Amino acid sequence: MKSGQLEELYTKLLPETGAPDRTLLMSDQQREVGHFNVFNVADLMLANRERPPMTFDRRAFYKISLIRGRSRIEYADQVVDVNQSALWFASSRVPYRWLPQQADQTGHFCVFTAEFLLPTQGRMAVEELPAFQPGAYPVVQVSEVEYTAMEAIFQKMTLEIASDYAYKYDLLRAYLLELIHYVQKFQPASALAPAHSAAERLAARFADLLARQFPLESPQQRLRLRTAADYANQLAVHVNHLNRVLKETSGQTTTALIGSRVAQEARMLLKQTNWTISEIADSLGFADVAHFCNFFKRQTTMTPGDYRG
After folding, report:
1. pLDDT digits (tens, 9 = 90+) for 150-172
2. Domains in the chain and their CATH numbers?
3. What are the pLDDT digits (tens) for 182-212?
4. Three-state helix/strand/coil letters over the chain
């Protein structure tokens, strides 16, 4: 699956939006500080009524969307139906698409690169923010009060990006972090609590290492870490210790957690690519198609061929 690039986004949006070039194109200054932009959903819906549905793919940028109206969000192997208002975080690691179910959609969304947040975060990676960490729930249903508060932040972004203020990107960065922190405040505490104990830190390192094995972008790419021993060696711990820690913190064994994530990737590859089942099996590290089919059936109760349909 090819990662969508910012240039592709602007190729689709520029002819229709009529927005000034300075709010759409990547200037030399933005290249130095990373990229950021903000859009109005209603304007884009009006301009793109005849366009085909959004493709299910990974993008090379991050996206935060505040949406109002009936729609469907497909994210990895999850499907979330939005009946009123929601905010969702789209990571560059995971394929997604948004499918409006009615024409009168409103809201806002912003796109940004990982580099855009580095100056403020003390060189903290975007994926270290709880909202973008592996396992974080990407879609948050919001109340009217929450929607109004977040819309005010997006409106500040929209006004500022069109300004001539010399330090506007610093201000936009602050608005972006304000939005992220606002959402994290009303996330479940368990999802945002930092890992303090040695066991929690090891579990967090394992989760991050597992997430970084994906996505698989081509049939020639092969899963580098496949077994519990592979992960234990990479984390410099005994395989039994890693298994015990993960059982304590997640209730699942190392092998079960790896298998669940491999099965998720298999489902996405079967549905969203034209790779053969043999290519998928090989890319995911299985010795042969038969082993992959047995694994997939244990995980999903279906054969790969039946799942692909």
Report:
1. 999 999 999 999 999 988 988 99
2. 6-192 (2.60.120.10), 198-308 (1.10.10.60)
3. 888 876 554 444 545 788 888 888 988 898 8
4. CCCECHHHHHHHHHHHHCCCHHHCCCCHHHHHHCCEEEEEHHHHHHHCCCCCCCCCECECCEEEEEEECCEEEEECCEEEEECCEEEEEECCCCCEEEEECCCCCEEEEEEECHHHHCCCCCCCCHHHCHHHCCCCCCEEECCHHHHHHHHHHHHHHHHHHCCCCCCHHHHHHHHHHHHHHHHHHCCCHHHHCCCCCHHHHHHHHHHHHHHCCCCCCCCCCCCCCCCHHHHHHHHCCCHHHHHHHHHHHHCCCHHHHHHHHHHHHHHHHHHHCCCCHHHHHHHCCCCCHHHHHHHHHHHHCCCHHHHHC
